[in-house]
TrEMBL record:
Highest rank taxon of the organism: Bacteria
GO molecular function, one term: metal ion binding
Protein name as it appears in the record: Metallo-beta-lactamase domain-containing protein
Keyword Transit peptide: no
Length: 208
């Protein structure tokens, strides 16, 4: 692997934020979700900065640190689905309103991603997007080398939650099949909650 992955967890919501660094300790780093601003800042080295944030979906526990991270790194790009971009602007849609800590984000540094879009991260390292709705309409899964970041579209030994706004059981099942079909036996799943787990040890029938 040409990347290093650091996980920090929001203690209240148990949501994972992943920090992606190059093995060469390049100054630019990336995030998968931003639910723990302080945890991210504690892991970054003094010369490192966040160049981009890839959002798996727009729920509060995965985006609550977005304003802080962009204030700290104004050149940072937010990568997300069209639905997530719209949800970031509405505290009721992203659910932060219901936690009495409304979060809205209306920055112009957002890049919309769709199925199989790729972005260069480091030398010889790309990130690929899969559209995986079901838990949330705009849910995305990201793959970097042998790492798959599934957000809440696939959590170890947990049925996908579809009862929240824009959730859909049929879409959730299709998305799990897509993740399965895009995972090789050596891939590792990094979910939005819980510990990472090897794709070849997943009981896919549990979800399907």
């Amino acid at each position: 692997m040409l990347i290093k992955i650091h996980a920090v967890t929001n203690k209240h919501f148990k949501a994972n934020t992943y920090i992606i660094k190059s093995i060469d300790n390049e100054t630019a780093c990336y995030l998968i979700d931003i639910g723990n601003y302080d945890g991210v800042m504690n892991i970054l080295e003094n010369n490192q900065y966040i160049k981009g944030v890839f959002l798996t979906h727009a729920h509060y526990d995965h985006i609550c640190g977005i304003n802080e991270i962009v204030n700290q790194f104004p050149e940072c790009t937010i990568f997300c689905s069209k639905y997530t971009k719209e949800a970031l602007q509405d505290s009721k849609v992203n659910l932060s309103f219901y936690h009495n800590t409304p979060v809205t984000y209306k920055g112009n540094n957002i890049r919309i991603l769709t199925e199989e879009d790729t972005c260069d991260l480091f030398v010889d390292v790309k990130i690929t997007t899969l559209e995986t709705p079901g838990h949330n309409e705009g849910s995305l899964t990201f793959k970097i080398e042998q790492a798959i970041f599934s957000g809440d579209s696939l959590i170890p030994e947990t049925a996908v939650i579809t009862k929240l706004k824009s959730g859909n059981k049929a879409d959730a099942k299709k998305s799990i099949i897509k993740i399965r079909d895009n995972a090789s036996k050596n891939d590792v799943i990094y979910p939005g909650h819980g510990n990472f787990f090897e794709a070849n040890k997943i009981n896919w029938n549990f979800y399907l």
